[in-house]
Amino acid sequence: xxxxxxxxxxxxxxxxxxxxxxxxxxxxxxxxxxxxxxxxxxxxxxxxxxxxxxxxxxxxxxxxxxxxxxxxxxxxxxxxxxxxxxxxxxxxxxxxxxxxxxxxxxxxxxxxxxxxxxxxxxxxxxxxxxxxxxxxxxxxxxxxxxxxxxxxxxxxxxxxxxxxxxxxxxxxxxxxxxxxxxxxxxxxxxxxxxxxxxxxxxxxxxxxxxxxxxxxxxxxxxxxxxxxxxxxxxxxxxxxxxxxxxxxxxxxxx
Length: 254
Prior knowledge:
This protein has 254 residues and is of the alpha/beta class. It has helices at residues 8-17, 30-39, 50-55, 79-83, 100-106, 121-128, 151-166, 173-184, 187-190, 194-201, 205-212, 248-253, and strands at residues 2-7, 21-25, 43-46, 60-65, 68-69, 92-96, 112-116, 137-142, 170-171, 221-224, 227-231, 238-239. 54% of the residues are buried.
């Protein structure tokens, strides 16, 4: 397995054109929110526009623009809010975010599309390196913020790539540099970057600790048709993940 790193829409499109398996990383907060929803047994339909989400025939609508909840939606893009909600297993949820769902759309046509973050880095790497994707090229895409790099996405991508490398994946040069950034960047820096400050201003400080906790939501979200579901690589069927929901560590940090 060869693992690479790419950034933003252009990186996602290039990976899709190459037929690679794409892992979309939006640590603050879409990828983390998707993991929590999957852990509750929900199907998550990613849509790029607010209008699409508003008109979707789904049980719940979740969305943010500029990190703030979209007016009239059931929830904002807050993993801690959703963790404490009563979204029943089997629900279908429409999700639209500023960056994450737009990058998912840009990755359309890829060999497979998964989402990753700090909270599921370990299980995701374990799944990818488990033998079902031996000949695959994996591109981990950091979403960024409105076309700019985001340190939290690069660090979470580094967490995933570091685990892939430790399981035998060959990392290209850029992926190796992203791993170095992950290993040497302090969590304190991430808690005070521009995205973190924006979340704090909007009252979402609880989300920061949750999003930065590693390996607390052991699910592998994979896009099957129009929705992310819990997936077992090679098994060919979606997994209801609610029985393996967020660990106690995640619940405490929420």
